[in-house]
Prior knowledge:
Blueprint: E1 16-20, H1 27-36, E2 44-47, E3 51-55, H2 65-81, E4 86-90, H3 93-101, H4 114-118, H5 130-138, H6 144-148, H7 152-159, H8 161-171, E5 187-197, H9 200-221, E6 223-233, E7 240-250, H10 253-265, E8 273-280, E9 283-285, H11 303-318, E10 325-328, E11 338-341, H12 346-359, E12 368-379, E13 382-384, E14 390-391, E15 396-400, E16 408-416, E17 422-428, E18 435-440
Amino acid sequence: MPHSLLPGALPAPQLWVGVHLPGMDAAEELQRLGTCAQRFTPRVSLAPPDGLLLEIKGSLHLFAGVAGVRDELTALTQECLHLQPVLAFAPTPLAALTAARAGRPLVITDAAQLIGQLAPLPLSALRWPEETLTRLARTGVRTIGAVLRLPRAGFARRFGAAHLAMLDALTGRLPEVRAAWRPRARFRRRRELDCELTDHALLLATLAPLFACLGAFLTARQCAVLELECLLVHRRRPATRCVLSLAAPCADERRLTALFSERLNALPLPAAVRACELRADILVPHQPGSPSLWQPGEHGGDAGAVSGDLIECLRARLGTQAVQGLALREGHRPESAWALTGPPPAAARAAEAADANACGAACRRPLWILPAPQPLTSQEGLPRRRGPLRLVSEPERIETGWWDGQEIARDYYTAVDCHGVRLWIFRERVAPHGWFLHGVFG
Length: 442
């Protein structure tokens, strides 16, 4: 007789609860439910778009058995998502999820009863491709029990080894490894003050224990922050937000405290502060850099770190919007080839500098571009500005913008005036072929 798809022994006693959420398709809501469900067990796994799995074998005694877990998990789902879930219990995660998706609230605690309980369930609960289900239906196989009775070798040859492995995981022949859901780590600490404060120095002293907790939190998780937020709570006024934005990830408690003190000292307080809450909602992996062999200024040693420190100090003291970076945009029109951005990290600044140096003279542009080109006078077809201009470069032709109604056709030159100032000028290629000043070199 051919070997059937019936299982061997389960590797270890487990009990999984599968949660099916009919009509659910929002990943954020499913993640929120997964975070809340960790009160039952740390072994929580998401099954998008509408499923959740929990291994609750070791937690049954804490919730008065299966019935207690079902009642509390149902209440939690209704409270978080306002949905009525379908819950099923089984020794394997896929069996619990399949039964829940089939709308059968089964409770299978004995592995010996697993096949008998799953056999009547429709194959559609496995969510195989429609083509596979149709082919099986043509042979009269429409339930899980029917497909488990098929010969293993023939089934794998006709429908693929992946479907066979899924059946083995369903019945416990093979162990199934489910990725545990880990919610995004974030830091939040609050401190109520003994008395209301208006002095910035006293507020910083009050925040010192919170920054110490933040430093320990980041060290334990090998993370860094790009933004810190402190809520200063008042008695009769809305809370004041003090936000510190960093140019590069930082995990140094002392540096964060120093930068935050600069930001706080520049923040006016509308009223006395009665409570403080420090928040870091976005954490990034911490990758500490190694110090350079050279001192700052020697062969470029640590120049990027020094400039990054200066940028962060200026942003903390003057505000985030007061310090901006420049970024190149794709396009040949000079007036639209750049944009204001946040200051890039040191590595990005070094890469941009290397690209700029490698670009050569043909790609050089003046740092000062006029808001609008200024017309120049001409004499015998040559430009003048406080006297005749001397052209010192070959023409660079730019013809673009025909697709958006802002077409330009220009020949650009580098010119020098009578005072030795280098200018960036162009001549229009269409009549009346006027000359214009567009930029000044430093």
